[in-house]
Amino acid sequence: MFKRFYEDLNPYLKPNNVLIIYGPRRVGKTVLLEKFLKETSLKYKLNNGDDLAVQEILGSGSIERIKNYAQGYELIALDEAQNIPNIGNGLKILVDHVPEIKVIATGSASFDLTNKVGEPLTGRHLSLKLYPLAQLELLDALTRYELEEKKSEYLIFGAYPAVLTLPTTDEKIEYLRELVNSYLLKDVLALEQVKNSKILLDLLRLLAFQVGSEVSLSELASNLGIDYKTVARYLDLLEKGFVLINIRGFSRNLRKEITKKSKYYFYDLGVRNAIVSNFNPLNIRDDIGKLWENFLVIERIKKQEYKKIYTNNYFWRTWDQAEVDFVEEREGGIYGYEFKYRNKGKTSKQFIKSYPKAKLEIVTQENYLDFIV
């Protein structure tokens, strides 16, 4: 068992409010919920959103039936809540009409949970996002030295909890292949408009080889034989399904800056490597720069989420190829980071010239833990 950052949910639970825990499939949302319920003193009811009887009651819109469902309990816990029709309205009735009730809902499809729940529960819900294990969570069980020793494992196999507990390389690879083929795209493919898993996987393969580079939607559309708008819609769904993260270009309206393109990173490097079927050791790979950049970006985003660092994230690049890998806009300041795996290199003089008040730092194998934990 790994200790998660949100191990204790009590600070986030409020009467007549819904706590939403969401994130990719298989990252440990159910385990986190069950562990909390095992230790809580609250009288609770736990149901799964796949249960037809629960779907029927909470999706009914009936105040009386939903009140009867919650009667006698202090806490209602719903796992896989996105599978319940009209879940937002059902939760609204719960918190509006059952005095002092506390509610926890977990789900893996952000486009269902946040969109369906957000509007009905405006001002009456709190959302926590759970990722594959963060380096700052692993630091609870490992020393900094041990974490650095295992760095290559995280770059190759990612950080899904189950992967980190499997004893052999073959078992890790098999788990990740199964994750990609059976679970990863399940939420996206569940939508009526998306029926072709092959195109989605082909799109993800193209993006896997372009980690750290600006992506052209028209070029992707041409390679896949589909139209531009379809590519844009698929990318949006893959973001909402916790497969990809989109980073936009940073600009203060200087004409030479690239702003309209995006970079895409994977929530988990094990998933990325499974998509391209490459689990080779780092010393014989030609994509180590991409892995290093993706690793630092996603781990930094996990840190921002868990430590409540409120920031806008960008990359910076000009038409004459000056670049900074990652830019944070926070607390009225601009902070640039350049990622170097093999050597320290030099910082971008053009970035500092363009933004004299900005701070710029190089992140290497020597100092990366300071950046992400």
From TrEMBL:
Residues 15-136 form the AAA+ ATPase domain. One of its GO terms (molecular function) is DNA binding. InterPro entries: AAA+_ATPase, AAA_14, DUF4143, P-loop_NTPase, WH_DNA-bd_sf. Keywords: DNA-binding. Pfam families: AAA_14, DUF4143. This is AAA+ ATPase domain-containing protein. It comes from Candidatus Blackburnbacteria bacterium RIFCSPHIGHO2_12_FULL_41_13b.
